[in-house]
């Protein structure tokens, strides 16, 4: 039956292709990517499931989206740094603390680089991390609940871009600053930047049992821009590599002044050495102020704590820990191959790719063959560390990923293409256009020791004519290439949400079997939970009113409440008593200044309502939960501030 369906679909694909040929216009038509076999490759029949999960950063949406590969179907948007009315994240009392920062409540960010936790350099599917660029933060998301569990702010950082990449046993999630800033922040003239600003590279430990984050130390580097980073792996485990630009330390007209040097650097950081130095009492404690927000799965509640200190490390105090590898032309991406031998610097203003050799780097360090220093940090000789150059013929290389067969795939922004080349021989094997202006690309596991090299997803910055127009604003566009053969084959286009920068992917079987289905009501430790409907009640405490409410198809208990007054602050604490997979109930009330709540089975969430007008006001369930969903409603009677109507409520008996 399945074969037959594919056959029919294949025929359909051919006829579509034929019909399409005559009237297609624009650049894309000449490519003729759609073929019957391409259609079959991405077709996941109704009722069947995808082979891979793909997590695409949402960029300026601040969130993370979950897709299936190869279908390109979007499964979920996970709210991380942005308020999200769909679930009430950042609106409910329980989740507001997750968005607390030293700048107060910051309900948005620019999320760039997701990375899945690893054990021995292989994806282990416990957590996924992502960075907030704008108000520097790192988030940890559970891959069993697919919810944000923790957010830590990164002090002394700005434009937290060379983040969030993890070491091969998830010892650290690493965050580097894009903008150098005064450390500590202070009032000073901008034109005194040079020599005075610092670039903080932060090493945040991840507790192996529960994933808890702790900012262990910050390396205070010279005032360059730290653009991207990747961990060493295998033989280079223990090192971390960061691309830099603006080694000129310019502070205005950056597009000209920061491109003067022919070469910038890749900074190689031996974090094991620094870790040891710190363990032996090295480093300087500096006053700081940054938020650490943790969400507890059992209390269903987030808490925010302000941290007051950070340990900083001056790299010149730890000999042998930090080196600069000259790398041409303002490199952007910094990628390490699965063996850990090659470090690729994608010089965004060049045509060639520079590949450094880890072994050569170690030999050069041991031979102390330096080419001067920058702020006390030794600069290695370019020729001594160079493994090879990929003469690609493309323009504007940005990012590189790897398959399991010794091939690398690099995106070229300016020439809009993906180029496949061979590690070690540097020969170009294939190139395929992207539509248009590709940024990152992702191969599931392509950022680990064990890539699953079946598909590459290219994430494009410009969409133009790929979809039906939707006014001036178009969603960004991703493209899937089949890379199982020698040549890449473009097999699918799909729209994405926000601006995906990086992505991370893994085989479905790593996550699907352990994906949480419900929260156990018996394990609900929420302070305001209503565990039995008999406990449903309303309590007044001055002008604060707490409503302990439970929900089950299709009833709110209590459903009618009287004795609320204008000027009260009403807390609806709603516990969902369902213990069935995929049966949320929603809650919303007229005039509420937040969003609805979507409460998962066994969970408690709280919404605040401040009634401003006398009347009888309805509330209702926002999720179509049963045939009697439209009956899932209630009323609140709101009386004048000075009335003496007693609190009363109906338990629906
Ligand atoms: S970026 S398109 Cu990772 Cu933010 Cu390169
Ligand atoms: Cu509960 Cu609709």
What's the overall average pLDDT, rounded? 94
Strands in their spatial order, largest beta sheet: 6-7-8-9-17-18-13-12-11-10
Describe the main β-sheet briefly.
10 strands, mixed
CATH superfamily of the largest domain: YVTN repeat-like/Quinoprotein amine dehydrogenase
Percentage beta strand:
35-45%
Radius of gyration: 27 Å
Q: How many structural domains does the protein architecture include? A: 2
CATH architecture of the largest domain: 7 Propeller
Q: How many strand elements?
A: 45
Q: Kindly provide the name of the CATH class of the largest domain.
A: Mainly Beta
Residue windows where pLDDT falls under 50 for at least 5 positions:
1-33
List of distinct ligands in this structure: (dicuprio-$l^{3}-sulfanyl)-sulfanyl-copper, dinuclear copper ion
Q: Fill in the CATH topology of the largest domain.
A: Methylamine Dehydrogenase, Chain H
Distance between the termini: 52 Å
Helix content: under 10%
Q: Indicate the overall shape.
A: globular
Give the count of helical stretches.
8
> Class by helix and strand content?
mainly beta
């Amino acid at each position: 039956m399945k074969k037959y369906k594919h056959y029919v679909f294949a025929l359909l694909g051919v006829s579509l292709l034929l019909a399409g040929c005559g009237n297609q216009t624009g650049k894309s038509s000449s490519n003729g990517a759609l073929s019957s076999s391409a259609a079959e490759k991405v077709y996941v029949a109704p009722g069947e499931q995808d082979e891979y999960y793909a997590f695409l950063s949402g960029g300026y949406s601040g969130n993370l989206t979950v897709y299936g590969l190869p279908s390109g179907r979007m499964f979920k948007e996970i709210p991380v740094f942005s308020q999200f009315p769909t679930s009430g994240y950042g609106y409910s009392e329980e989740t507001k603390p997750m968005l607390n920062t030293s700048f107060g409540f910051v309900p948005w960010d620019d999320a760039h680089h997701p990375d899945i936790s690893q054990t021995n350099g292989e994806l282990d599917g416990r957590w996924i991390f992502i960075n907030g660029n704008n108000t520097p933060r790192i988030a940890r998301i559970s891959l069993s609940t697919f919810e944000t569990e923790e957010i830590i702010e990164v002090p002394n950082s700005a434009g937290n871009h060379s983040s969030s990449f993890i070491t091969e046993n998830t010892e650290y999630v690493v965050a580097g600053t894009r903008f150098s800033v005064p450390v500590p922040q202070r009032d000073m003239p901008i034109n005194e930047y040079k020599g005075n600003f610092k670039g903080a590279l932060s090493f945040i430990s991840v507790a192996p049992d529960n994933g808890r984050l702790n900012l262990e130390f910050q390396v205070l580097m010279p005032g360059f821009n730290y653009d991207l980073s990747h961990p060493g792996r295998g033989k280079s485990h223990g090192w971390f590599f960061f691309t830099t630009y603006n080694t000129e330390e310019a502070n205005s007209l950056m597009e000209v002044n920061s491109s003067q040097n022919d070469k910038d650097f890749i900074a190689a950081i031996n974090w094991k050495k620094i870790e040891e130095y710190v363990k032996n009492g090295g480093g300087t404690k500096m006053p700081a102020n940054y938020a650490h927000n943790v969400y507890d799965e059992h209390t269903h509640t987030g808490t925010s704590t302000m941290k007051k200190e950070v340990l900083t490390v001056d790299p010149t105090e730890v000999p042998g820990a930090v080196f600069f590898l000259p790398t041409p032309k303002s490199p952007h991406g910094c990628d390490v191959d699965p063996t850990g031998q090659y470090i690729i610097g994608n010089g965004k203003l060049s045509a060639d790719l520079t590949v450094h050799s880890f072994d050569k780097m170690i030999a050069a360090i041991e031979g102390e063959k330096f080419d001067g220093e920058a702020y006390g940090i030794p600069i290695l000789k370019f020729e001594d560390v160079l493994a090879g150059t990929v003469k690609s013929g493309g323009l504007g290389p940005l990012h590189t990923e790897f398959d399991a067969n010794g091939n690398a795939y690099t995106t070229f922004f300016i020439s809009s293409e993906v180029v496949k080349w061979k590690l070690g021989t540097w020969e170009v094997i294939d190139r395929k256009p992207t539509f248009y202006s590709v940024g990152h690309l992702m191969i599931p596991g392509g950022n680990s020791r064990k890539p699953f090299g079946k598909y590459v997803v290219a994430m494009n910055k410009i969409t133009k004519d790929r979809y039906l127009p939707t006014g001036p604003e178009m969603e960004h566009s991703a493209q899937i290439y089949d890379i199982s053969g020698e040549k890449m084959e473009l097999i699918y286009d799909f729209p994405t949400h926000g601006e995906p920068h990086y992505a991370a992917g893994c085989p479905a079987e790593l996550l699907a079997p352990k994906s949480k289905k419900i929260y156990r009501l018996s394990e609900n430790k929420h302070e305001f939970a209503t565990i039995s409907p008999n406990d449903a009640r309303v309590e007044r405490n001055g002008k604060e009113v707490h409503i302990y409410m439970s929900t089950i198809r299709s009833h709110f208990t209590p459903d009618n409440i009287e004795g609320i007054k204008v000027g009260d602050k009403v807390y609806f604490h709603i516990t969902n008593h369902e213990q069935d997979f995929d049966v949320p109930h929603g809650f919303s009330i007229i005039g509420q200044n937040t969003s609805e709540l979507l409460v998962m089975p066994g969970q408690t969430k709280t919404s605040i309502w401040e009634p401003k007008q006398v009347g009888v006001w309805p509330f209702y369930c926002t999720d179509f939960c049963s045939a009697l969903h439209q009956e899932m409603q209630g009323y609140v009677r709101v009386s004048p501030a000075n009335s003496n109507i007693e609190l009363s409520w109906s338990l629906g008996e």
